[in-house]
Amino acid sequence: xxxxxxxxxxxxxxxxxxSSEDPDFFxxxxxxxxxxxxxxxxxxxxxxxxxxxxxxxxxxxxxxNVANVVVHTDLNxxxxxxxxxxxxxxxxxxxxxxxxxxxxxAVINRSELGLIDNWLRYVEDVYLKYRAPLDAxxxxxxxxxxxxxxxxxxxxxxLCRTTVVQNAWKNGQxxxxxxxxxxxxxxxxxxxxxCLNNANEMPTLHAAARRIVTAT
Length: 216
Hints:
Elements: H1 5-21, H2 25-31, E1 37-42, H3 49-52, E2 60-65, H4 75-87, E3 92-99, H5 102-108, H6 116-119, H7 121-129, H8 131-135, H9 140-160, H10 163-170, E4 176-183, E5 188-196, H11 204-214
Parallel strand pairs: 1-2, 1-3, 3-4
Antiparallel strand pairs: 4-5
Helix pairs in contact: 5-7, 9-11
């Protein structure tokens, strides 16, 4: 139990399988990472970023936290974003939520989970912002799905308002920010039709939120 031998065995089997398929894979991987994408997603173990989009290690830079939140006081998240933009020169940042998210459900159900409740206040703020249309949805699953989508919109806006993204756009650096949602029960990504390429497109986020709220 102490040494988790099964995980080491799995690792060796995985490394051997990869090497048999491509003998130069690890040597090439160790030389550099040049991902074109940064993925900001949820920590949920059912949402493995690389596998969802069919990319290999080294092709997707990843940051994950509970409920895929982006806030200006989170130096962890902002450091990842800054490194991705300024050093790796990624061309796309994807904020991806997922239906059935435990954080979203905790806010909808007003659950008390402990320390994480403080983190989920950011999601609760999104809920309060759209409380009237959300509370008008009778089905609790549909209500949670709507909040999941609205949370993605909110976090995309938070991301686009960071100085790192704003400066990249001011300097003419090619950078697109996308909002997606993943459905765990069928493995399919849904594009929320959010794609911002410059600061002038920020108003499209309000239109996206209205579209989500009014959609049946």
